[in-house]
Design goal:
There is one protein chain. The chain is built from eleven helices and nine strands. The strands form four sheets. It has a three-stranded antiparallel sheet. Strands 1-2 form a two-stranded antiparallel ribbon. By secondary structure, the chain is of the alpha+beta class. It has three domains: 75 residues, no CATH class; 65 residues, no CATH class; 94 residues, no CATH class.
Length: 268
């Protein structure tokens, strides 16, 4: 079980700022730490929390999101007990778990929790699949069912269809290429944050491309950033700190505040 009434250190970031503020925590600065009650953590939080093994009683730490995904309502098992507990299951118990999930077991032997076992899903009887008891007990299941429940209208980010292709056409259009070149020329092909000139440059939309259609080709809504200052793959870049959704003009201004570069004219 998870140890109750514990406070966990969480580092402020662009992706958790609004969530934590909605829970009543006061923002200090990006990358600074704040103590958060365990019950206030988001479901998939990467913060490490203390949990107690339900078999031997030992206390250890693990990521909160991993705890929710792996254990949920199941018993918590430490690494020392894991092998003993999961190898002790008899084949009938394992088969019953498959049957309870709507899967027809095709195996006649059980040699350990991590050994793939053949089965058929009742919704896809023509597909023979394999999965270990370990993965099944962690909540994984038929990959075909997963694809069906997470594509098209069933996906939580579904926008009505055709959007991805539509956006791709816009981003590769002649007008967009002209807009990027105009932004680069205005900023003299220089990153407005770190001052690096030339190289791998990006024309950054100050107010998000997907939310402000009317500003997509507005040069005042653009700013030149080098790849290191722009890409979410680089530590302390704009998108690494603030993410891609719900970013604001204030976020961009704050991002540039630590440099001496002149902030380009902003959209009204």
């Amino acid at each position: 079980m998870i140890i109750p009434d514990q406070d966990v250190e969480v580092r402020w970031s662009g992706s958790n700022r609004k969530y934590l503020e909605s829970k009543g925590y006061e923002f200090t600065a990006i990358n600074e730490y704040v103590l958060v009650k365990v019950e206030d953590l988001s479901y998939g939080s990467a913060a490490r929390v203390s949990v107690q093994c339900d078999y031997c009683g030992s206390i250890y730490t693990m990521k909160y999101g991993a705890f929710n995904r792996i254990h949920g309502s199941n018993k918590v098992c430490c690494t020392k007990c894991w092998k003993t507990v999961h190898r002790s299951h008899d084949i009938e118990m394992v088969k019953n778990l498959f049957l309870s999930r709507g899967y027809t077991p095709l195996f006649s032997e059980y040699n350990g929790a991590r050994v793939p076992l053949q089965y058929r899903c009742s919704k896809h009887p023509d597909k023979e699949q394999a999965m270990s008891y370990d993965n099944l007990s962690r909540g994984k299941g038929c990959r075909f069912c997963y694809f069906e429940s997470n594509t098209g209208p069933n996906h939580p980010s579904w926008k009505g269809g055709g959007r991805s292709e539509y956006v791709k056409v816009i981003r590769t259009s002649a007008d967009m290429k002209s807009w990027k070149l105009a932004v680069f020329h205005r900023d003299d092909f220089t990153c407005v944050r770190c001052g690096v000139r030339g190289g791998r440059l990006n024309a950054h939309h100050i107010l998000p491309f997907h939310k402000h259609k009317e500003l997509r080709l507005d040069i005042n809504n653009g700013a030149t950033l080098c790849w290191e200052c722009h890409s979410s793959a680089k530590h302390n870049s704009f998108h690494h700190i603030y993410g891609h959704k719900n970013v604001t003009l204030e976020d961009f201004t704050e991002f540039l505040a630590t440099t001496k570069q002149e902030i380009p004219e902003q959209p009204q």
